[in-house]
Each structure stands twice: as C-alpha cells, then as structure tokens.
Amino acid sequence: MSVREFRQHNVPDRSDGGLVDITEAARILAVSVSTLYGRVWQRRIAFVKMGRAVRFEQSVLKEFIQQNRVQPRDTAKS
Fold first, then answer.
1. Which of 78, 69, 22 lies closest to 47, judged by CA?
2. Measuring CA to CA, which residue among 73, 59, 69 is closest to residue 25?
3. Distance of alpha carbon 78 from alpha carbon 75, whole angstroms
4. What does the pLDDT read at residue 10?
5. What's the pLDDT at 68?
6. What is the pTM assigned to this prediction?
7. What per-residue confidence (pLDDT) applies to 4?
8. pLDDT below 70 — which residues of the chain?
9. Distance CA 33, CA 21 (A)
10. Residue 19: per-residue pLDDT
C-alpha cells in the first residue's frame, strides 16, 4: 500500500465530524482566527490540543452554534 493510499484510508472524512484546524473552524463560525483563539484561551469552546496545534471537532462546532443561537422575539400583537 502506498503512502497516498494509506492516507486516503486513514484520514477522517470532514463531513462526518473529523477534526478541523483553527482557520477552518473560524470560517465555519464566521469569526476571525484571533477571536477563536480568544475563545480557546477563555475555555469557552471545546478543542483538541495536539502538540502546539489546536483542532476542533465539527460536531463540537455545530453544538457551539446551537448553544449560542438566539431565538427571535414574538412580535405578534394581540
């Protein structure tokens, strides 16, 4: 098995909740990289630390978005 074949079989598919780097996570959350580093420093979002690298599970990012969702007010007048 070649190195390329090994990587293709052992790299998780990002669509099923694989790890993403800080740049991709910032893009998903629509914030700057520095803002996301701030949330990591404040421990406001879960992350995986691999040496110096910070990674995020896509499922954690989706959960973070759901937890911070603000529902609209009911503006119907009686």
1. 22
2. 59
3. 10
4. 45
5. 93
6. 0.70
7. 57
8. 1-17, 78
9. 10
10. 96
Question: What is the pLDDT, as a whole number, of residue 74?
Answer: 85
Q: Which residue bears the tokens 């110096």?
A: 52
Tokens 């421990």 label which residue? 43
Which structure tokens are listed for 64? 């973070």
In the block, residue with structure tokens 């879960």: 46
Match 């910032």 to its residue by tokens: 26
SS (H, E, C) the chain: CCHHHHHHHHCCCHHHCCEEEHHHHHHHHCCCHHHHHHHHHCCCCCCEEECCEEEEEHHHHHHHHHHCCCCCCCCCCC
Amino acid of residue 35: T
